[in-house]
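Loading example: each entry is read as two labelled lines plus one structure line.
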Amino acid sequence: MGKGKLIVVSGFSGAGKGTLMNALMERYDNYALSVSATTRAPRPGEVEGVSYFYKTDEEFRQMIERDELIEYAGYVGHYYGTPKTFVEENLEAGKDVFLEIEIQGAMKIKQKYPDAVLMFVTPPSADVLRERLTKRGTESADVIEARLKRATEEAEGVEAYDYIVVNDNLQDCVETVDRIVKSEHNKAGEHISLIKEIRTDLSKQ
Amino acid sequence: MGKGKLIVVSGFSGAGKGTLMNALMERYDNYALSVSATTRAPRPGEVEGVSYFYKTDEEFRQMIERDELIEYAGYVGHYYGTPKTFVEENLEAGKDVFLEIEIQGAMKIKQKYPDAVLMFVTPPSADVLRERLTKRGTESADVIEARLKRATEEAEGVEAYDYIVVNDNLQDCVETVDRIVKSEHNKAGEHISLIKEIRTDLSKQ
């Protein structure tokens, strides 16, 4: 059992990333989903350690100072960050760790973990995306327009990504992501020592 | 349907590449196996256009002159080469084309097709490789020793490869290769135009 892979997942809101992550975690034992730390209050139904690790401003500040976060960012008055321990412990245990984050955060992750695999999830077309964003609830035209505008910004920097996954059908998408992660374990770097061993061994006789 | 991928497969003799290629072609409709041209005579049981395209020295020389070969090399008095037409027609038709070739030839392919995926197939250990090479027939110790020596040379340059696939169990190996090829179709480069389309489309309203 080698070390796990860090898989960074970004994508348009409305691409179905959350559902995709849940389906992956349910279906495969070898995957772990990184849980973020946040200073915002829990919402009804959210669970400590599952939805988020809930922290006071002071606790969050200490995590930053102790270098316990891989990355963090402020968003509408609250802090959000990725705790390092969870990620590293799972990678060491051989689990592939998924981390859902927007592109700016992904770039910070890639700097610290150059072997991280960057995956961008997209709906099959702008029409489908528009449909998903407008169907979510009974929001006003303003809210919907703001969302569509944000979607155009969410792909800023996608050129740095390794893979693009089209989420048309959830089950297909789950299998595609699983296939990519498994294939990443066949990357030559991970097995070059086996080849060297074989060559040394053969030349010994 | 996009363009197919060119998959270059190399590996130790005794790694089971031939059996692996046959199993892949039998199981998946979307794969094509490149057939080499050669100036050597057909052996019993070999079929023109399946085993090889059999050429006279003069025909082979003309193929070289007309730039009809992606690469070619001489080996014990005969020429072997990869006809360009077969590969390009299948890639255009959206098929993934497999090409079995040693590392030196693979490097020439990669120069002409920078998008080609390089895959190296290996047995799980030197012991297994030794067993496979010595069990093949009733060859003399000399022949076996020459084979083992050649095996150590066959991995020269493997650092340039994208993937290493361990052939322990044939079915697992077939699935691993299929997974890698499918995942290569999710590489960001192939889908970046979709993201651009979505962004343009969303910003239009």
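Chain B touches chain A through 44 residues (CB under 8 Å).
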